[in-house]
Design a protein that fits this description.
- By secondary structure, the chain is an alpha+beta fold.
- The protein has 2 domains: 13-220, 2-Layer Sandwich (D-amino Acid Aminotransferase, Chain A, domain 1); 230-317.
- It has helices spanning 13-27, 75-81, 130-137, 164-176, 179-183, 230-243, 246-258, 268-290, 294-317; strands spanning 33-41, 45-51, 57-60, 65-66, 92-99, 115-123, 126-127, 150-156, 192-197, 209-213.
- The chain is elongated.
- The relative contact order is 0.14.
Length: 318
């Protein structure tokens, strides 16, 4: 019997930053540099084509299995009428955007006929890579989202705020001219970009997906990625580099050991307390004279100290 499979929630950038930091701390590894693949976020409705272990096919909306007799936006009827163009699978779900026509307003693809654009495939618990998807759909009657313009972005999660402006600029370009609609002969507004983390053997990238949307089509009630003050970030980092020296970090590491505490993940908080306390005691006047917000500087101090401690603890554990 077919069983509905829900597509996971796509988070905001800040949520993924927190998730990466939590995973790094939990696993006792340094914050990583991860590669993300970005694809156009189409404004339609989430839909899927599922296959049982025996290859029986079904259609689903975001939350229900649908049929031509109990349909949603005509998707099940479309699946029935286009079954010959859908490559068969087993134990899998092809997730995609059912878009165009009257499904959503305010975007360029609304000027096109209804279409199903696959953006992910889950088979037996494995999410296909973009290259696997492109290869699979190449000879089919469907074009997956990676057949259209897409992007690659490496993000260093020690400095995630540095990438916000670049991600925002890419989104503005998509918003101004939807690349998918343009390739299909229509000009107009796009919605945004969805970013998926590429697989890594040394870091858990499962579920690291985030979206960045634009502002022009207010019908979608989206949240945009806030721009950052690049000059302030650079000045904060320069000050942190000045006051959080290798000598200071190593000295506080020795202080931790003198307290009888081991260099391990469970004592991260105690180490950060030692470093930030020392900086506030010895460098408060320097921070004040810089004119930079103390909260921003101390956040940078904590992040630098945490990175040092996690890297040290990871080396010791090897």
């Amino acid at each position: 019997m077919p069983e509905h499979v829900s597509f996971p929630s796509i988070e905001q950038y800040r949520n993924v930053v927190k998730l990466v930091r939590d995973r790094a701390q939990h696993d006792g590894v340094p914050l990583p540099r991860l590669t993300f693949r970005g694809s156009v976020k189409l404004h339609g409705t989430n839909a899927g084509i599922g296959f049982t272990e025996d290859g029986e096919m079904w259609a689903q909306s975001r939350s229900l299995i649908v049929t031509p007799e109990a349909d949603y936006m005509g998707f099940a009827a479309w699946v029935r009428d286009n079954a010959s163009a859908i490559p068969p699978l087993k134990s899998a779900v092809i997730f995609g955007e059912w878009c165009g026509g009257n499904i959503q307003k305010g975007v360029a693809i609304g000027k096109l006929p209804k279409m199903f654009v696959p953006f992910a495939v889950l088979q037996s618990g494995h999410w296909w890579s973009p290259s696997e998807m492109k290869s699979f759909f190449f000879h089919s009657g469907l074009r997956c989202i990676y057949d259209f313009p897409n992007w690659t972005q490496v993000i260093d999660f020690n400095l995630p705020e540095e990438y916000q402006n670049e991600l925002g600029e890419l989104t503005k370009a998509v918003e101004a001219e939807c690349p998918v609609a343009k390739e299909l002969g229509v000009s107009g507004v796009g919605e945004g970009i969805v970013w998926w983390a590429e697989h890594r053997d040394d870091f858990n990238t499962d579920g690291l997906i985030f979206k960045v949307k634009g502002e022009k089509h207010s019908e979608t009630h989206v949240k945009t990625l806030a721009a950052v003050d690049v000059e302030k970030i650079a000045n904060v980092r320069l000050l942190v580099d000045t006051i959080v020296t290798q000598h200071r970090l190593e000295k506080k590491l020795d202080d931790l050991k003198e307290q009888g505490l081991e260099v391990g993940i469970k004592n991260t908080g105690q180490f950060l307390k030692l470093v930030t306390g020392d900086v506030m005691k010895e460098e408060a006047d320097t921070i004040s004279a810089s004119g930079l917000p103390q909260t921003d500087v101390m956040r940078g101090v904590s992040m630098r100290a945490k990175q040092f401690f996690m890297e040290t603890a990871h080396v010791i554990s090897l």
